[in-house]
Structures are given as structure tokens and as C-alpha cells.
Amino acid sequence: xxxxxxxxxxxxTIIGAAMISLRLPIKEDYFEMxxxxxxxxxxxxxxxxxxxxxxSPGDLMQTGIDxxxxxxxxxxxxxxxxxxxxxxxxxxxxxxxxGLALDERWDGTFYIVDIKENSPAEKxxxxxxxxxxxxxxxxxxxxxxxxxxxxxxxxxxxxxxxxIQHPGELDIINxxxxxxxxxxxxxxxxxxxxxxxxxxxxxxxxxxxxxxxRKALIQLTDSLGAKQIVFDLRGNGGGLLREAxxxxxxxxxxxxxxxxxxxxxPEWNNKYSTQSKALLPDIPLAILIDNNSASASEIVAGTLQxxxxxxxxxxxxxxxxxxxxxxxLAYGSRIKITVxxxxxxxxxxxxxxxxxxxxxxxxxxIQADSTLQTFYxxxxxxxxxxxxxxxxxEINTKKLNYVLSGILESGVLFDxxxxxxxxxxxxxxxxxxxxxxxGIQWDAFMRFMNDQFSSELLETTGRDFPYEPKxxxxxxxxxxxxxxxxxLASNADLINRLNNLxxxxxxxxxxxxxxxxxxxxxxxxxxxxxxxxxxxxxLLPNDEVAKEAVSKLESGEYLKxxxx
Length: 564
Prior knowledge:
Layout: H1 3-50, H2 57-70, E1 77-79, H3 84-92, E2 94-97, E3 100-104, E4 110-115, H4 120-123, E5 131-135, E6 138-139, H5 145-152, E7 159-165, E8 173-178, E9 180-183, E10 189-192, E11 197-201, H6 209-223, E12 228-232, H7 241-249, E13 257-263, E14 270-273, E15 285-289, H8 296-306, E16 311-314, E17 322-328, E18 334-344, E19 353-358, E20 364-366, E21 374-376, E22 382-384, E23 393-394, H9 402-410, H10 412-422, H11 439-452, H12 455-461, H13 470-485, H14 492-501, H15 506-512, H16 514-539, H17 544-555, H18 557-561
Parallel strand pairs: 11-12, 12-15, 15-16, 16-23
Antiparallel strand pairs: 1-18, 2-9, 3-4, 4-5, 5-6, 5-7, 7-8, 10-11, 13-14, 13-18, 17-18, 19-20, 21-22
Helix pairs in contact: 6-7, 7-8, 10-16
């Protein structure tokens, strides 16, 4: 055999060995999958046959799948056929239903907290504060609120009968509603925040997000004369990646890279760039973000920051740099799987938590600061990976005090607003921009609170007091420790004094936090009469984050911050 033939043979042998070695892990993987599926199948079969109590195969498998997925990340989720409306809502913002939202009261009843305008629920005469008692003539008292939601949703054009109890009434009224396609707007509000600055808020990234944002921007600039734009992404948990790219394209010229993705399989290694002519490529722009701005919101904010195209104002964003895709499964079910990580224009991944690296308690770890890489914007400003989007101007909002937090959670502000607006209470001039709570209205609220949380009523109903000072918890821990140490009996007077000091006093606490509680009550009353747009019109003039953004845009200071 000559030397060249021998060399070729050796090369072919090496390549063949490499191909075999590449195939071996795949074969081993498939064998391991088949083995584990067989074990699962046999365990599932034996449980169904022999377990002492009756089992629901569907519920048992749902529990198993959920337990399997919880070990991965919170975004990889299984959707049985019964939850297909939820899947459609995620991508379209649209679902088949009657246009109401429920919450659960302390006594286990379910009450209406939101009704969409022109929805079947509104046209059927349902009101905020109504109790939902029955569905199709059957009591719902034993059901979980998520199950009730599944029962109310359904195919457009089908009917559903709801048993409703109006506030203050005992009779149950049966109302038959025809389900419709309910579409919640992606842009719930836009308007002028100052003489020259337009404002819009985007609540989610569904298929219509870019269309709605474009329409709002055209209205603000062409009809209302906006010279600057404040774009609010606070509380926006994300949605469709392609909508994020398209929205960036509204402000960035054609041909700029917006985001890239890297996954386990080559099909997910993609780059996305702006494809169209920008709508407003030069308008001064500020993006508002907070701790709940995630995913697609972070793509928009992060890339506009990387390109030095917008001033980012607010709080550090959530830090979700993962991409999901929905896959069809058998029998009409689906699974949403994390398939890739995304990287903004500078090359950084903003993912904060690492779900493959967990501590002793099972919590995902955050990468140490010393290990994080620094990237640079178009103008050379440093930006860091692994921490969400860090705003150019950070403004920390005031933390909610424990008194108001408990009152809000109890639903008593909502109940008072229902009582006043639905049951013929004092007539309010609820112009959102000028309305202020009067002394008479505040006194009425104080009386309402004292009636709802009187010691006599709490004893007879079993309802909990709406809030608890942290000092009370500390005293309880101290009391338990002293009992274990054998020193409680000799210090009973001390413990009694501490318990009295930590006992909440409703009237004193309401006066102490009157300013914050008045504002929350005002917002609730405006919501009941002016809906969401009224609340925005009321809150925006005093929104510290929005005001700072307007100031920096109108003064031109944003240019210096962005490195121009």
C-alpha cells in the first residue's frame, strides 16, 4: 500500500471513529429515555391498579409532569387540553369568555373585581362587587378560583349561566351570557404627560402589540403634538420575541441587530435585526422599567440602551434572558419549553438566576459580581450582564407600609368603593385629574373600617385583622423561647406589656399612614367610576419616575447621559 493510500485510510478511519463517538451519546440518550419512560409507565399502571384510594389518572399524571418541570425553570410549563384558552391568551391577548375577573374573599366567596367594557358581563348587568355563587346551577363554594376561571372560559358563541348575588342582597339571580372573544388591549392608555411629551404604556407583547404601539405613537405625534416620548414598560412581563424586535424597529433604522439567541440545537442560534423603515428614528425617547419588567420588555429596554437610542429610567429589571417555544403534545395538550438564551445588541445576556445551579435549599443561584462580564453600548458606555437591565437613572419607589399592604390585601378598599358607588353613597365629583378625597369621605371610610374590623365582628365571623406588626411576631418568638428556657412564668408581666405595645390600633394606624391610605382609596374610587384610563390620568402627574424622564427629555440632559 503506498503512502498516500495509507494516509487516506487512516483519515477515513479517524473520521469514522469520530462519527461513531458522536452517535454513541445519542444512542445512549435514547436508551436512557426509553428505560425511564418504561419505569414511569409501569409505576403509573401499578398505582392506578393497587393504590388503596380511588385515583384520577389525569390528575396523577398532571402532578407528575408538574413535579418534573419544577426541577427545570419556572417558564417550562405543561398545558392540558382544558387550559388551551390560557395558551391562546398568552400569544394573542384574546380568550373566549364573558369579560370578568374574580377574587376570593376571606369568607370563601368569589367576587367580581373587573369587568371589561362592552363585554357580555357588562351587557348582562353584572357589577363590580357582585358575588359569583353558581355556574350552571351548581354551587362553586368547593372549587379553586383557577378551576372557576376554566369553567367560565370557553368557545365563543356558547352560553353559560351564572348565579350572581348583588352586594347587600340575599337572592341569587341567574344570568345567561353568551361567550365572546375577549381582547384585552396591549396599550391600555396613552396621552400627553406634559405640553410637549407623549406617554404610552404597554402591558404585554401579544400579536397586536406593535400595531397598537404604532397607532398610539402616530396619535401622540401627529394629532397631539408630542415632541418627546415616554414609553412605560413597568410591570410588563413580556410575550412574543418578534413583537419586541418590531417595537424596537419603530425607533431604530433598518439593519440594526436587535437580539440574538443561542440554544442547545443549531436551529435556535439566530439573529434578529430591524427589517423596516423606522417610524420615529430621531424622537427623544425614555423607557420606564421596574423589577417586574421582564423578557420581551428587557429586549426592548436593553437593546435601546445598548444602541444609545433611549434613556432608561426606573428600577433594575427582572432579569429573564430565556426564550420559550410552545410544542404540541398528544390529545390536544401542549408544553412551553425554554429553548434558548437571548443576547441584546451589545452581546450581553441579562439572565439573573441560574436554574441549573441551585443552593442547599433548592433555590436558583445568582452569579457573583466578580464573575460578571462588562459589555459596551454603541457610544462606549459600560453595561453589565446577568443583572437584568440596569437603568441609566435609578429611582427607587417608596416601599408600601405594612398597614396599607394588609388593608389592600383584605379587599376592604374595594368593598368601600362598591358600597359608595353602587349603593347610593355620597355623590363624588370623580374627575380623575382634579378629584381629592374630602374630610367627610375620609370619615366615612374610617367608620366603615371600624365596622368591618370591630373585635365583636372578628370574633363572630372568624375574620382575621387585616395587618400585623412585625414586633408582634418577634414577641411571639420571644415568648416561645422563654417558655423553653423556663423563664416565662417569672416574666409574665414583661410579655403582657410587650403584647400590648405590639397590638395594632386601627384608628391610630390609619391616622399615622393617612396620606398613603387616602391616595390608595382615591385610586380605588376613580377605578370604580373611571376605569383604568381614569386611574392613569390621576396617577401620572405625580409619578416620580415619569416626571424624571420628562425632565431629562425636555431639558436635553438625556443626550449627555447617553454619551452624545
